[in-house]
Design brief:
Layout: H1 2-33, H2 37-46, E1 59-60, E2 71-77, H3 80-85, E3 92-98, H4 101-120, E4 130-131, E5 137-138, H5 147-160, E6 163-165, H6 184-195, E7 210-212, H7 217-224, H8 233-249, H9 252-256, E8 261-265, H10 270-274, H11 278-282, E9 285-288, E10 303-304, H12 317-320, E11 331-336, H13 342-351, E12 358-361, H14 370-375, E13 377-383, H15 392-398, E14 402-406, E15 425-426, H16 435-440, H17 444-457, H18 472-485
Parallel strand pairs: 6-7, 7-8, 8-9, 9-10, 11-12, 11-13, 13-14, 14-15
Antiparallel strand pairs: 1-2, 2-3, 4-5
Helix pairs in contact: 2-4, 4-5
């Protein structure tokens, strides 16, 4: 009896331990399967062993004489040889390890990953939008891959993220960019980062998480390119020289092989310019409108930039206040644009001036207004031109006209956070002849949900001055922040 009693006492804790281990294992599998790619990638870091052997609970903040040092404090037992010359009682000695600046940065990022991971393994969900108490709407709903993860990551970004802008380079090619017309997002981002409220910018390169190369490819084309030659070598040479200068003057490029550096370009030739340095092309974060997966764009490190066409530097007043939800939209679909690239040629061949429901024009008649037609159409066709991106994508969202994506190899903007299938329709290029059949087959109930999705994501594609939380400026920053979370200094 006594033996049975002691055996039961031993087995009960063992069974409990096995049950706990199996539960944790199942939770980790389920959370990994249902996370967006970028968030799944960062989970790998939160569960791996740190490069430096100091556990989180061993960290203590010590203020040194210059009030700028973080120290890690731990206690270890003396070795046996010390006991021979001292008392037999075991004593503890305090070993102080001074964290390097890099370790301090990585420790902060590790805390951010842990915070995000804590949300990932919980069963929290946001089905409907609600306010955070300060007037901002917390992201929620089907347009997000995981709204709670996005929200937690965004909060960590606001709390920690710092960007250093290299001061090297002269106007007009560096520290400036176009703020009007089709490549306006390029200049607006540079201006906001360099001349905005400075919340995310730091003048101390040692405390930065990422480093910005502030050249404008659009202005390189304007000032360095010889028209009609299609020779992009001057752009590559400029980029090569710029990287050489900053990598010589600062230690940061060589420390990470450029992995914590980023460039931003909306010009079609942005990817070609980045070839001026192999590490910039293959390792650095490239924020590009021309996000073509078949031409070297890597969504694991690169970022798709939305193309925003600002005529005269502003959004058309017609797009600022789209018609109410119950207003009639008599046209099934609309497109007007020049013959640029094979996809548009295919679209115009099958639908140009052929149908009263699918309005397709190469050149819009003078008595018709482009934005009025968007506002009166249920779907807006967004075919790629010579390159994959099109400003019609954002214009459609502004007009609350459901975008119809006609493209190949286009990595859509912010797709690591947004579910494009919840607010757009993607039609394979081979199905363009069946376009009316495909769009007409979408039930009214589904169309209404798609339109609601368009309305929900509008703020993420809006340029504000000054910027507002969750707008396009902050969505770009968050995309960069996510890539930095997925990289760790060695």
């Amino acid at each position: 009896m006594a033996a049975n009693f002691f055996r039961d006492k031993m087995e009960t804790p063992l069974l409990c331990l096995i049950s706990v281990i199996l539960s944790l294992f199942l939770v980790s599998i389920i959370s990994t399967l249902y996370l967006p790619a970028q968030f799944t990638e960062l989970m790998r870091f939160t569960t791996s062993k740190p490069e430096y052997s100091i556990s989180m609970d061993q960290l203590r903040t010590k203020v040194s004489a210059d009030r700028n040092q973080l120290r890690a404090v731990s206690f270890r037992e003396h070795g046996h040889h010390l006991h021979q010359s001292q008392s037999r009682n075991r004593t503890a000695t305090r070993i102080v390890k001074r964290l390097s600046r890099e370790e301090m940065l990585e420790e902060g990022l590790a805390r951010a990953r842990a915070s995000i991971r804590s949300i990932a393994v919980s069963n929290l969900s946001l089905a409907t939008t609600h306010s955070d108490g300060g007037g901002d709407i917390i992201p929620a709903g089907v347009v997000y891959r995981n709204p709670h993860l996005f929200y937690q990551s965004y909060m960590e970004m606001e709390k920690r993220f710092k960007i250093y802008v290299y001061p090297e380079g002269d106007l007009p090619i560096t520290h400036d960019g176009p703020c009007k017309d089709i490549y306006s997002i390029e200049g607006r981002f540079i201006h906001e980062l360099e001349h905005g409220d400075g919340r995310f910018r730091t003048n101390d390169a040692n405390v930065a998480h990422v480093y910005f190369l502030p050249f404008s490819v659009t202005l390189m084309v304007k000032y360095l390119y010889t028209p009609n030659t299609y020779d992009v070598s001057p752009l590559k040479h400029y980029v090569s020289d710029y990287v050489r200068v900053v990598s010589t003057r600062y230690p940061f490029w060589n420390r990470s092989q450029g992995a914590d550096h980023f460039m931003l370009s909306c010009h079609d030739w942005g990817p070609f310019a980045s070839q001026g340095n192999p590490l910039l092309f293959n390792t650095s974060i490239r924020v590009l409108c021309n996000a073509n997966a078949s031409e070297g764009f890597d969504p694991r490190k690169d970022i798709s930039l939305p193309e925003i066409h600002l005529y005269g530097g502003v959004v058309s007043p017609k797009l600022l206040s789209p018609p109410p939800d119950h207003a009639s939209r008599p046209h099934l679909a609309f497109f007007a644009g020049g013959l640029h690239g094979p996809i548009r040629a295919f679209l115009l061949k099958h639908w140009k001036n052929r149908d009263n429901d699918i309005l397709v024009y190469e050149y819009l008649p003078k008595n018709l207004d482009y934005y009025s037609l968007m506002l009166n159409s249920k779907f807006c066709l967004c075919p790629s031109g010579y390159e994959v991106a099109s400003p019609r994508l954002v214009e459609s969202i502004y007009a609350e006209c459901v975008p119809v994506i006609l493209s190949k190899n286009y990595v859509l903007p912010f797709s690591d956070v947004l579910r494009w299938e919840a607010f757009s329709v993607e039609v394979h290029v081979s199905d363009i002849p069946r376009l009316k059949e495909v769009l007409s087959a979408i039930p009214e109930s589904k169309y209404r949900k798609l339109k609601e999705g368009v309305r929900a994501v509008r703020r993420h594609f809006t340029l504000n001055h000054p910027p507002k939380r969750y707008d396009v400026f902050h969505m770009i920053l968050h995309s960069i922040w996510l890539r930095r979370l997925n990289f760790r200094l060695r």
